[in-house]
Specification:
By secondary structure, the chain is α+β, with helices and mostly antiparallel strands. It is 27% helix and 29% strand. It has helices spanning 25-32, 63-66, 73-92, 132-141, 148-163, 169-192; strands at residues 2-7, 10-17, 22-23, 41-46, 51-57, 61-62, 70-71, 108-110, 115-117, 123-124, 144-145, 209-213, 218-221, 226-230, 237-238, 250-255, 258-263, 270-272, 275-276, 283-284, 290-293, 296-302. The strands form six sheets. The chain has a six-stranded antiparallel sheet, with no helix packed on it. A five-stranded mixed sheet has the order 15-14-16-17-20, with no helix packed on it. A four-stranded antiparallel sheet has the order 1-2-5-4. Helix 3 packs antiparallel against helix 6. The longest helix is centred in the middle third of the chain and has 24 residues, at 169-192. 27% of the residues are buried.
Length: 303
Amino acid sequence: MAGTNTSYDEFVLNFRIEEDVEVAQNEMTVFNYEFVGNRTTCILVESEEERTLQYTIPATLPLEQFLRKQLYKGEFLSILSNILNQLIYFEENQMSFNKLLLNVHYMYIELSTLDIQLIYMPVQRKFADCNVTEFIQTFISKVRFANMACVECVEKLLKYLDSKLMFDLDEFYHYVLTLEEEMIQEDSVDKNAPADDTPTSIEYNNPIPYLVRMRTNELIPIIKTEFLIGKSADADYQITDNRRVSRRHATFRISNGECYIRDHNSTNHTFVNGKLIQPEFEIMLANNDYIRMGDEEFKFWIR
């Protein structure tokens, strides 16, 4: 049985365990070391009523929630390589994959780094067998692709998996790293290519700015140079379930690679990191800034 408490950048997850279940202290110690971006910690909490494994998870969103947005190739490969690298860590430390909760519902992501937090159960009991190949295929099937580059990358991965009679974790991890290196080289070539003076419509590649609506954990991509938030029907992101948000509350503006916010003389004002911003005066945003419109809170994230 599990329960979850959340804050802006931390989840606390509790799993109740039976009285006769033994906790593997050596496994808990190894899991509690920081490794490959995983900074989740686990402790045993005991009372007269129950025993629980309590996990403190430094992350912004459940991975399941993050996967509702479309992923770019770099995001997808970064997440996948992070997961694989952690699996190698568990394998090298003789920690059974069967004790990992390899399910995106129990995996968490820190938006600023794309670090993934996995949950490991350090207890002496029987677990169902874990099929890593099946997990990877299921994970890939949940990805929504932002462009053809990501689709082509996924096709390569699936062909690779289909071509192997036996799955080798280390080999597959290094294949993913090869794809990441190819992407970096392609990006370098594109940046050095001659500029084309033909006018084009604005198109966002990585990095792309997002808002995280804290109350719902919804990811909101800022996909226009002028992005309006409010109750109005013409708002780019419409909030109809909060009376303290004005019809045309605030606009986000993208210019020269920076994002600015402007309050439209809203009734309940706009705040950045707790400071009131003056109406119709633009404030430049930084990664991980907190924004409050009335009492509706957001986190600004750019990746």
